[in-house]
Write a structure and sequence with these properties.
The protein has 330 residues and is α+β, with helices and mostly antiparallel strands. The chain has two domains: 100 residues, Beta Barrel (OB fold (Dihydrolipoamide Acetyltransferase, E2P)); 178 residues, Hypothetical protein af1432 (Orthogonal Bundle), CATH 1.10.3210. The chain has twelve helices and five strands. α6 runs antiparallel to α7, α6 crosses α12 and α11 runs parallel beside α12. It binds fe (ii) ion (2 copies).
Length: 330
């Protein structure tokens, strides 16, 4: 396995990758060629296939794991692959250098450890039996998906285990704020942390290289999550109607703003806190993703359209252009 981040200009390479996108484009003479984007756990690289594209066009689809052969060249300052041969991986590749975990980005945390911590925090801090039962039912019924799904296609926690990492992080923040503001209803905060994005398990197609399902595009995770909550609450005898109403509100308002996909803005303090800790966790993760992928040779990363800014990554101690402390002679 040759990782994308290690590829060098002029190198001839045979390796495995995942196809993130594939499109037909036209050469200057009008003939078609394929533009592909490859990825592995270390990054992405654009590829072009100039010749014999018919087989690839039919056989290879977005999200497929492939074995390819090609050459690395520099184009417009970036590395790219000129692909000569490509095929989908087959079972024999497994003993031959192909390992799924090399190809998909994965949380840096131990998934089983995060899962155990999430379960024990819920058990330890939830006081109402009906809410504890609701959360346990949802967690038990979706364990495999919760452990593997990303929290999104692109914007934040967009890797294997990202959904769990994000949920646990929001839960820890929820418990912090429940202590800081003791008047808050801790059960609601805990339930909000666990359930707010649960609709993403239906919104996204699969744990690796996910795309939006039809239900995800037509309904979205906010309403899908609310529907799941209603059906789970209906399984619990005499689940209090007022609690269900507030839990519905937590899910429906967690995006915070109408233009960010919430049909209602937060109207109870627990919903307000949930929105901010969710947004903060997503943005902190986005900051680290942007910094990790950055290749700019300057004090700032490239402009990130989700954050709406470039991030400063220069020296925190010594500013290049503005001395922060006047020298003694001044
Ligand atoms: Fe969300
Ligand atoms: Fe979230």
């Amino acid at each position: 396995m040759r990782f994308i981040k290690d590829l060098q200009e002029g190198e001839f390479v045979i390796s495995y990758s995942q196809v993130r996108s594939k499109e037909i484009r036209l050469k200057r003479n009008g003939d078609p060629y394929l533009r592909l984007v490859f990825s592995d756990s270390t990054g992405r690289i654009e590829g072009k296939m100039w010749e014999n594209i018919e087989g690839c066009q039919k056989e290879i689809h977005e999200g497929d794991f492939v074995k390819y052969q090609g050459a690395v060249q520099i184009y417009n300052g970036s590395k790219e692959l000129i692909v000569q041969q490509i095929r989908r991986t087959i079972s024999q590749d497994c003993g031959n250098g192909f390992n799924l975990r090399d190809l998909i980005a994965c949380t840096e945390h131990d998934i089983e450890e995060m899962w155990r911590r999430l379960r024990s925090l819920v058990l330890e801090h939830t006081t109402r039996p009906c809410i504890l039962q609701l959360l346990n039912n949802v967690l038990d019924g979706n364990e495999e998906q919760i452990k593997s799904y990303p929290a999104g296609v692109e914007i934040h926690h967009n890797y294997w285990g990202g959904f769990l990492e994000h949920g646990l992080s929001v839960l820890e923040s929820a418990l912090f704020f429940a202590d800081k503001y003791p008047d808050l209803d801790k059960d609601l905060l805990i339930a909000g942390a666990i359930l707010h994005d649960i609709g993403k398990l239906e919104e996204l197609s699969r744990p690796y290289s996910p795309s939006y399902t039809a239900r995800g595009q037509l309904i979205g995770h906010v309403v899908l999550g609310c529907n799941l909550l209603r059906s789970e609450a209906a399984r619990i005898p005499e689940f209090p109607a007022n609690l269900l109403l507030l839990l519905e509100h937590l899910i429906l308002s967690h995006q915070g703003q109408l233009e960010w996909g919430s049909p209602k803005r937060p109207k109870i303090p627990e919903a307000l806190i949930l929105h901010y800790i969710d947004d903060l966790d997503a943005k902190m993760n986005r900051f680290s993703l942007v910094l990790k992928e950055d290749r700019e040779d300057s004090d700032f990363t490239q402009f990130d359209r989700y954050l709406g800014r470039a991030i400063f990554k220069g020296d925190y101690e010594n500013s290049r252009d503005y001395p922060l402390v006047a020298s003694p002679s001044e």
